[in-house]
Amino acid sequence: MLFSLGIVALLRTTKYLLPEFSHGVGKEFPYRPPLQSSRNLPIPPAIVPNRNRFLSSIAAAVFLLWLSDLQSPAGPEHVILISCDGLRPDAVELLGAKGAPHFYRLITEGSYTHNARTDADYTITLPNHTCMITGRGVKGGPGHGWVSNSTPKIGELLHRNKKAYLQSAFDVVHDHGLRTALFASKKKFVLYDLSYNERNGQADTEGADNGRDKINIYQLDELTDPLIIKFVMAMSREPFGFSMLHLRDCDSAGHGSGWDIANGTPYINAVVKVDRLIGHLLTLIEASPRLKDKTAMIVTADHGGRLSTKTHTKADEAKNYTIPFYVWGAGVHAGGDLYALNPGTRADPGEANPPHNAKSLPPVRNGDAGNLATFLLGLPPIKGSTINGKQNLKVAMPPPAK
Ligand SMILES: [Zn+2]
Fold it and tell me: How far does Cα 18 stand from its chain's mean position?
């Protein structure tokens, strides 16, 4: 959307710039738009086809595209939100760029932090994934209220539990006419398919009626290798505007033999595997003209975990609530640390996990992901959301000044 606005602005401005440029390319740089409304601008002389003028218009177009990139980088048409269940950021650091080349590619080419936070009160799977898609914390008035971590029983829904409709990123994207998908590797994710199906999803009041079923494709496969193949095939056939992909491997290894951050442990091997799966996605994006330079990825986790307990349930343990957050792709420049990029709206929490109502600036949370996805797609925030509800988590950095 921002990009199309840029193009419109480009066309409108170029119209008036061209005659001037015919007197000498670059003479008018740096261009400053006149301080008057376009309505009052003098009507330009007719554009006579001539080589100099053609070259001038190309130069003008390139310059203005560069200028619009400074102000509003071209956003992606597709956003993939990947949740690496149970991924600890220090595991990625232990592996380094050699052992986890694809995570490190997200780090070097995008914006990231290894000190993001789960929800303030829960470090278990379903409550945290519900934070990601609704942009809410778990507890309190604005919280989504879903505290269970089991496969929902018949009749259990997010909205019934909250006693109010909980809008999600799936709603926002789908109601604006884009395709959505959830590819999950745990059965309990059926909670989202049930809550947002054609019976339980809210009516679409946004423009054309795209129906109540907010998730076009729901796919479950507990094995992540076939799951990723199915995702890649579906994405190649007809790309989703917004998709969520859940990869369970790190969590499964952690419950089996502990979150053991040492070379060669089952947990570290699972992190290597997830890195490889993300590599498949990067390959897909770059090999497809429909996706290349049009796709962004947000990668985070629902919680970390501990070696001693082989669980992640204690919400006041730093190893449980410290998670990574990576943003990469179209519209995202190599910006480095997310806290440095957002000094006015986010603060590095150090070792703490502040409550949602803390007076201090909030940390980057997995709950930021839903509204970051809608923002990158040029869409409004999720209704009722409180985490990144102003869509102010910034990831794009202008190119450095020369
Ligand atoms: Zn778990």
Answer: 38
